[in-house]
Amino acid sequence: MGLTTYKMLINGKWVSGSTGETFSRVNPANPREVLGKFQKGNKEDVDRAVDAAQDAFENWRLTPPPARGKILLKFSYLLEQEKEKLARTMTAEMGKVLKETRGDVQEAIDAAEYMAGEGRRLFGRTTTSELRNKFAMTVREPLGVVAAITPWNFPIAIPAWKITAALVCGNTVVMKPSSDTPICATRFMELLEMAGAPKGVVNMVTGPGGTVGSRLASHKKVRAVSFTGHRDTGAEIMKSAGVGKRVGMEMGSKNVTIVMDDADLKLALDGVIWGAFGTTGQRCTASSRVVVHKKVRQKFERMLVERSKKIAVGDGLEKKTEMGPLVNEAAREKVKSYVEIGKKEGARLVSGGSAPKRDGWFYRPTIFTDAESDMRICQEEIFGPVLSVIEAKDFEDAVDISNGVDYGLSSSIYTNRVQDTMRAIRDLQFGITYINSPTIGAEVHLPFGGSKSSGNGWKEVGWTGVQFFSEEKSVFVDYSGKLQKAQIDTDEKG
Question: Does 184 qualify as catalytic in the annotation?
Fold first, then answer.
C-alpha cells in the first residue's frame, strides 16, 4: 500500500504545490515508519492562499459575529468527536504520550468554545465626551488577512488559540504549520471546513519556514502575523514583517521553579518532574531550572534523582510510557550537545545524560546539580528533558537567580508562606506565575505570553486573543446640530 500524499488548502480546494515537490514525515518513536508525503509549498503558493483569503475577507467581516461563533462552536463539537483519533495521530507524528495529546486536543476544544462565546461579546466601550450632545464609544473591527505560523509541540491546541480568535474577530487566515506535524494541521483544517468555514476564509500552505513562513510574514496583503517558535526565527519574522503590520511573538523561555525551605517537598517533586519532563521537556513553559533553598537542596535533589530514574521512556502509544521521544534527530543532537556543555561547565550530572539503545529519537530524563546561574545550561533554551538544580541562599536570592535570564515566560514557586507567595507574584519577571503548581498548565480563558525575549508584548488566548486580532476603533456621534470643536477653550464649548 502506497504512502498518502497530503495536499494544501487554498480557496476551499485541496491542491498540490506549484512545483510538485513533496517532503516526508516519519514517526519519531520509529524513524523507519514514514507517515506520509506533503506539499513543499513556495512563494507562489503563499500568494495564491493570501489572494484567496483577501477575496474572502469582505464577506466574512460582514458576517455577524454570532454566526461566526456558531461555526466555531460546531468546530469544537467536531474536535470532541475526533479527540481520540487526533490524539493518536499526534502521538505518532510528534511523540508525546497519549495522555498529553488528548489534553492538547481538549485545549483546542476549550479554545473554540471560548471564542464561540466571543461572537456575542467582542466588547467595545462607551465613555463620556468633553462636549455636550456628543456620544463616544469604541467598536471592534477585524484586521484583514492574518498569518498563523504554528509549532509542532502543540499542533492542535496552538493553531486553535490563534485561528479561532482570528476568525471570530472577522479575519481570514493563512496557516503555515510546522513540517514536523502536517497531518495534524491537515485534519484541523478539514474539521474547520466541516464546521462551515466558507472557502478562502481558512487556508493552509505547508513547506519550509524560510520560504513559506518568510513570504507570509513579508506579504503586503497580510495585516497580522502570529508566530510561536524559536527566538531566532521570531527575530527574522519581525524583520520580514516590517512597519505597519501587527506581529505577535511567543518565543520560548528558560522557565524556573523555586522550592522554598517550607515547601511541601512531595508536592514540589510532582510539579518539577511534570514541568521538566512532560512533553519530553519540549514545551515553551517547561521547567528547565529548579532553584532550591539551601536548607532543603540535598534532600530535594535525592528525591528528584530517585523519581527521574523511574520515568518510563518509550513510544507514546504504549500505556506504560511516561515520556516519549524528541521530535526529530536534530532535537536529540541539540540535547546531547547541551549535556556535554553542562559537563564542561562544571555542573554535576546525576541522572540520565544518554540515549537508550533503541530505535527512535529518545533521551533519558537528565538532571544536573551544582549548577550556577551563569552557565549556558541555565541560560539557554535546550527544549529537551534536561533540568538544572541551582541552590539559593534565601527568597531574595532565589528571585534574583530566577530573573537572571533573557527570557520571561513561566515561573513557579512552592511555599506555604503568604509573604513569599505575594512577593513572588510581585517580583518574578515572567508573564505567568504559578503558586504551588508546575510551570505548565495554562488555561484558555487567561492570557498566555511572556516578557523580555519570550515575546514582544502581545499575548494570545482569552480576551487578549481578541485584542490582538482586532482593531479598536473610536467613534464619535455629534447630535448637537452645530459645529463643535474639541480641545478648544472651554468658553467656546456648549
Answer: no
